[in-house]
Design a protein that fits this description.
Order of helices and strands: HEEEHEHEEHHEEEHEHE
Strand order of the largest sheet: 4-11-5-10-9-8-7-6
Mean pLDDT: 94
Distance between the termini: 39 Å
CATH superfamily of the largest domain: Gcn5-related N-acetyltransferase (GNAT)
Radius of gyration: 18 Å
CATH class of the largest domain: Alpha Beta
Strand content: 25-35%
Low-confidence stretches: none
CATH topology of the largest domain: Aminopeptidase
Length: about 250
């Protein structure tokens, strides 16, 4: 798949909806007070970089807003000079994450008997999964806030007889459908809930005639990566968050 990096990174921020978004040439700069790394990390919109002076300019913009400076940088050859410059500025790579791409046509077409609710607005059932005791309450609240703010999402939740058990969102932006905030409560993991949500999102994507898709997943989340690979997702690149030690 020929990947338009600028459209993919723009679509990412359309989904996680930072409170403010700025730009400098070649960069997107999201600003927010949140735990969502993608919503607070400067990201280049091409995979080559010659103007390394932009690091100081970007840092000054975060500092002016009272925020810590973070960068989200792909592990590709064209950005090696940028990564080296960040090291020299005292930043270190953390939290390895994969960007995976695929085609909706390879997704399941049935929710396999699960009761899945799809909505263009956040629902109480969807919200309750993020605020479940199975997840960090601060991070859960931040995700509800950011994802609820987006103009590009549809929201899905799966339920059993005891109530909501899984939730996620799909964003339709820049010609992509992307998956964000996929969550399943502990008691229902490994039972196909996430696949059911993805099947529902896939039906909506095909209705909108969008086939190319992407997601980001932490490199250590082996169960999720196994699922996504079974749905045809392939790793396009990996990236790290670059932060200064606390």
């Amino acid at each position: 798949m020929d990947i338009d990096i600028a459209s993919l990174e723009t679509a990412t921020l359309d989904a996680v909806a930072p409170a403010e978004l700025d730009t400098v040439p070649g960069w997107l700069l999201p600003f927010d007070n949140t735990t969502i790394g993608r919503a607070i990390s400067a990201v280049p919109i091409r995979h080559s970089m010659e103007d390394l002076a932009s690091i100081a300019d970007i840092a000054s913009r975060y500092t002016a807003r009272g925020l810590k400076t973070q960068f989200r940088i792909a592990e590709v050859d064209g950005l090696a000079p940028l990564r080296n410059a960040l090291l020299q500025h005292g930043y270190t790579p953390q939290q390895p994450t994969l960007t995976m791409v695929g085609n909706v046509s390879l997704w399941p077409t049935s929710s396999t008997g699960w009761n899945v609710e799809l909505s263009v607005q956040p629902t109480p059932a969807w919200t309750s999964v993020y605020l479940s005791e199975d997840f960090d309450p601060i991070d859960g609240a931040n995700r509800v806030k950011a994802l609820s703010r987006s103009q590009y999402l549809v929201y899905a939740s799966a339920n059993d007889d005891l109530g909501p058990i899984a939730a996620g969102t799909a964003a339709f932006s820049q010609g992509w459908v992307s998956l964000h905030g996929m969550r399943t409560v502990v008691r229902s993991r490994g039972m196909g809930c996430a696949s059911a949500l993805i099947a529902t999102f896939g039906q909506e994507a095909l209705r909108r005639k969008i086939d190319r898709c992407f997601l980001q997943v932490e490199a250590g989340n082996t169960n999720a990566i196994r699922l996504y690979r079974s749905l045809g997702f392939q790793t396009a690149w990996s990236y790290h968050y670059w932060r200064k030690p606390a």
